[in-house]
Design brief:
The chain is of the alpha/beta class. It has helices at residues 50-57, 125-138, 154-165, 177-186, 200-207, 221-228, 258-264, 280-292, 309-317, and strands at residues 2-9, 22-29, 37-45, 68-75, 85-88, 95-98, 103-105, 145-148, 169-174, 190-193, 212-217, 231-239, 267-270, 300-304, 324-328. Helix 2 (125-138) packs across helix 3 (154-165). Its main location: cytoplasm.
Length: 329
């Protein structure tokens, strides 16, 4: 028998998550049967989506949802030999027996000098989210101006860099001076700390007086209400997240942007990255090439130790990370 550590959602979050919402448990796993593999976690991801999705996709007592890079340590499945690495959607657990249906092999030509943790970041779901939000939802074009909020996070930082590669002007908003400095290192044309500017409206106008063609939305709430007023006619808004709303116990209300959306004929579309899963292989290879060429930079905020999963998750929700938040086992 093999033992696994797991983090359980002890009770649904009410407001901001607390330590008492989680419980560390031990689980006994059976030996892999024909067609199955035994996985050992190497890196685990903590992401904003886990907060709202835990309410709709989980029951109290379930293992916390999430993705990890894992190593195959036993195999009775020829598609996944011992020693290969995979991306698995098995949640917050150190070991897993899988029938192969919920795992994907790391790209075959993964370079030795690129950490496998990036398969949870720029060369994984967050990177694909940035790419598809720009290409499929916004249909962004060279010469256009993009606004990104939460721009120093795993998705926003990649979205801004991809837009620059496509010949766009990029304006980013973040929540600390260190994050703003990082955005400028990445080549953002303008960046500001939304917590310290006297007026968000004026900051957006100063950064791009002519307005914005595209808006990559990660935050929602009051920021969104102000930003929509700065859109150009026929502007496109890709709604990726709403982190300012996730921990509310009382829903936020208004102002309501409907008249501006009508007058400017704006397009605003929510999306989930899985819609374009059929493109993932080609897209991930593109992202990897950009990293190898030095055109895409990926910063990570690494927490060491599986026992620190809840702390890493809560820290990410509080904006402690620059780039992708990762837990190294």
């Amino acid at each position: 028998m093999v033992q696994a550590k797991t983090w359980i959602l002890k009770q649904h979050f009410e407001g901001f998550p607390k330590d008492t919402d989680f419980e560390l448990k031990l689980e006994q796993l059976s030996e892999p049967r024909d067609g199955e593999v035994l996985l050992e976690a190497v890196f685990l991801s903590v992401d904003p989506y886990m907060r709202p999705f835990s309410r709709v996709r989980m029951q109290a007592g379930d293992v916390m949802i999430g993705t990890q890079v894992a190593k195959v340590i036993q195999s009775k499945n020829p598609s996944f030999p011992v020693g290969c690495h995979v991306v698995s959607r098995c949640g917050w657990r150190t070991r897993t027996v899988s029938d192969g249906s919920d795992i994907t092999k790391i790209l075959a030509d993964w370079p030795q000098d690129v950490s496998l943790s990036h398969a949870l970041g720029a060369i994984g779901m967050p990177g694909l989210t940035a790419l598809y939000g720009l290409e499929e939802v916004c249909a962004i074009k060279p010469g256009e101006t993009l606004l990104v909020n939460a721009a120093a996070g795993a998705v926003g930082s990649v979205a801004g860099q991809i837009a620059k590669l496509k010949g766009c002007k990029v304006v980013g908003s973040a929540g600390s001076d260190d994050k703003v400095a990082y955005l400028k290192e990445l080549g953002f044309d303008q960046a500001f700390n939304y917590k310290t500017v006297p007026s968000l409206e004026e900051a957006l106008k100063n950064a791009s007086p002519e307005g914005y063609d595209c808006y990559f939305e990660n935050v929602g709430g009051p920021f969104s209400s102000v930003a929509i007023l700065q859109m150009k006619a026929f502007g496109r808004i890709a709604v990726c997240g709403g982190i300012s709303l996730y921990n509310d116990t009382t829903p936020q209300t208004g102002p309501y942007p409907h008249l501006q959306m009508i007058f400017k004929q704006l397009k605003m579309e929510g999306f989930l990255v899985g819609r374009w899963e059929h493109k993932n292989d080609e897209s991930l290879k593109r992202m990897l090439t950009w990293i190898q060429e030095g055109n895409l930079k990926c910063k990570e905020h690494v927490t060491v130790g599986f026992e620190n999963m809840p702390a890493a998750f809560m820290g990410m929700l509080q904006g402690e990370n620059i780039g992708k938040a990762i837990v190294k086992v």
